[in-house]
């Protein structure tokens, strides 16, 4: 390790010496604007039209091969890479000698003619070049890829340079989000923005991050959901709204959880969860078709068909299928408690029939739900903002969409009865007093808003990061967030 550090220090020193040598020759190692008229891939794709014509292209040097008075190199830009060919008789001895001061990682811009080499590679014969930026630090592992997973997340800028598939993931992520906007706008939804800092963290069962506003001398919370502010807008008469934004939850980190993540929440007056099912399956399917070119994809070796309609299954049916326990035949919490004890599940004191049903679902069912499916009929205890079923008030008119064993979307027929909503909040407060710090808090202003009247409505939340994981075949959320949350660690040379 000590020897590696010494070698790196020597390389850093050599690059700085080359930087000074460039300046001594009147070349600024950190140049100015350069106008490229083509990306690398476009030159190769349009070779028939561009052969023999002059182009300008800019990028990072990722290879250099010198053959005396002629050299080949590769430039990497946003789209890919292209070979360039430099000759002393074309550039002149003085300019050609600058190649001795080039390093892998440097940025240059070139002007040249397009041709194809004897080996068939599309190449730009350089007529002139401009030095754009000296890289003072070498790329890792001889530029063949950054393998250390944690280092990739900590130094995403290097990861993007050396791992083209990583760059492609984030290009797809951008296209996924922009396509989502296009579809929702096309369907008549209005994009809005709601506060990230809130005096009450509501809309989900989660632990918030806490901060303080000095001027107002008040405690504020980073939002754990956008739901309650968006539903206030339904009260105000905005019939179809959505928000794409960051959500913050002070919880553990795993392959599918990051404390800071992106979601879209969608709300529609005069609708219900059936409408939200249609939006969910069609939104995800159409995004896949527009971004990937197909609604059928392979995720971790398994074929998944996103074509609507997706099947539906109640939570009770799912629990019966995967655990063998039929909650429709368990009359009360005591019967459910006995079933859980026989199944070897650990229970918290005071858990109800609905709490235990949901525990069974988490333990036995979620990982089994590989193909797209809507799970309906969630217990009221874990659904404080959803309307109850008339046929069984222990359950709510709520669904979650599962794909590849992950919850991708969560939706309700929204609770719009302010009296019922207050009672639900009071039940959640009892849970908080019993030690559940993720239980929902009381939000008097939201109840106040409901008292003005909110029409029947459907609401939907989709985890964008998990959807991107699915559509890019990544199994860790850190692979689809440019800068995931990590414990600080000092940089080392």
The CATH topology of the largest domain comes to: BirA Bifunctional Protein, domain 2
Enumerate the spans where pLDDT stays under 50 for 5 or more consecutive residues. Answer: none
Strand content: 25-35%
Average of the residue pLDDT scores: 94
CATH architecture classification of the largest domain? 2-Layer Sandwich
Total strand segments: 18
Biggest sheet: strands side by side, in what order?
6-10-11-18-17-16-15-14
Number of helices: 16
Query: How would a textbook summarize the main sheet?
Result: 8 strands, mixed
Helix content: 25-40%
- Give the quaternary arrangement of the chains: single chain
Rounded to the nearest angstrom, the radius of gyration is: 29 Å
**Structural class by helix and strand composition:** alpha+beta
From the N-terminal CA to the C-terminal CA, the straight-line distance is: 11 Å
Question: CATH superfamily assignment of the largest domain?
Answer: Bira Bifunctional Protein, Domain 2
At the first level of CATH, what is the class of the largest domain? Alpha Beta
Total discrete domains: 2
Broad shape:
elongated
What can you see in these coordinates?
Helix 14 packs antiparallel against helix 15. It contains 16 helices and 18 strands. It has an 8-stranded mixed sheet, with helices on both faces. The protein has a 5-stranded mixed β-barrel with strand order 1-2-3-5-4. Strands 7-9-8 form a 3-stranded antiparallel sheet, with no helix packed on it. The chain folds into 2 domains: 137 residues, OB fold (Dihydrolipoamide Acetyltransferase, E2P); 259 residues, 2-Layer Sandwich (BirA Bifunctional Protein, domain 2), CATH 3.30.930. By secondary structure, it is α+β, with helices and mostly antiparallel strands. It starts with a helix and ends in a 21-residue tail after the last helix. It is elongated, with a radius of gyration of 29 Å.
């Amino acid at each position: 390790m000590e020897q590696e550090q010494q070698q790196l220090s020597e390389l850093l020193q050599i690059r700085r010496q080359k930087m000074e040598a460039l300046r001594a020759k009147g070349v600024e190692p950190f140049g100015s604007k350069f106008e490229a008229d083509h990306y690398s891939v476009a030159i190769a794709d349009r070779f028939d039209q561009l052969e023999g014509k002059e182009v300008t292209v800019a990028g990072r040097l990722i290879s250099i091969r010198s053959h005396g008075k002629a050299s080949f190199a590769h430039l990497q830009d946003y789209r890919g890479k292209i070979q360039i060919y430099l000759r002393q008789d074309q550039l002149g001895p003085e300019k050609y000698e600058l190649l001795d001061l080039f390093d892998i990682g440097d940025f240059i811009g070139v002007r040249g003619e397009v041709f194809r080499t004897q080996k068939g590679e599309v190449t730009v014969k350089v007529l002139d070049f401009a030095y754009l930026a000296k890289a003072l630090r070498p790329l890792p592992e001889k530029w063949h890829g950054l393998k250390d997973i944690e280092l990739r997340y900590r130094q995403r800028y290097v990861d993007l340079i050396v791992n083209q598939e990583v760059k492609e993931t984030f290009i797809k992520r951008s296209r996924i989000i922009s396509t989502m906007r296009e579809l929702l706008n096309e369907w008549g939804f209005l994009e809005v923005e709601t506060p990230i800092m809130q005096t009450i963290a509501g809309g989900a069962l989660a632990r918030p991050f806490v901060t303080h506003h000095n001027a107002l001398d008040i405690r504020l919370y980073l939002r754990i959901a956008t739901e309650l502010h968006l539903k206030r807008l339904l009260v105000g008469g905005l019939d179809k709204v959505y928000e794409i934004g960051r959500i913050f939850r002070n919880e553990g980190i795993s392959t599918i959880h990051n404390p800071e993540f992106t979601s879209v929440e969608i709300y529609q007056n005069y609708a219900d969860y059936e409408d939200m099912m249609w939006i969910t399956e069609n939104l995800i399917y159409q995004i896949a078709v527009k971004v990937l070119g197909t609604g059928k994809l392979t995720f971790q070796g398994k074929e998944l068909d996103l074509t609507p309609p997706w099947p539906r299954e109640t939570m009770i049916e799912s629990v019966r299928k995967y655990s063998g326990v039929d909650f429709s035949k368990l009359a009360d919490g005591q019967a459910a408690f006995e079933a859980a004890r026989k199944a070897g599940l650990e229970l918290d004191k005071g858990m109800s029939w609905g709490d235990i049903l949901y525990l069974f679902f988490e333990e036995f069912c979620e990982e089994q739900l590989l193909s797209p499916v809507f799970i309906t009929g969630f217990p009221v205890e874990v659904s404080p903002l959803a309307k109850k079923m008339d046929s069984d008030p222990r359950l709510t008119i709520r669904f979650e969409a599962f794909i590849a064993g992950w919850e991708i979307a969560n939706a309700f027929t929204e609770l719009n009865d302010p009296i019922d909503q207050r009672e639900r909040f009071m039940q959640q407060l009892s849970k908080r007093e019993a030690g559940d710090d993720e239980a929902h808090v009381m939000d008097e202003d939201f109840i106040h808003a409901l008292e003005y009247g909110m029409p029947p409505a459907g609401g939907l939340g989709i985890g964008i990061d998990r959807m991107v994981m699915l559509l890019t075949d990544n199994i860790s959320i850190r692979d689809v967030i440019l800068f995931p949350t990590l414990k600080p660690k000092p940089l080392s040379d």
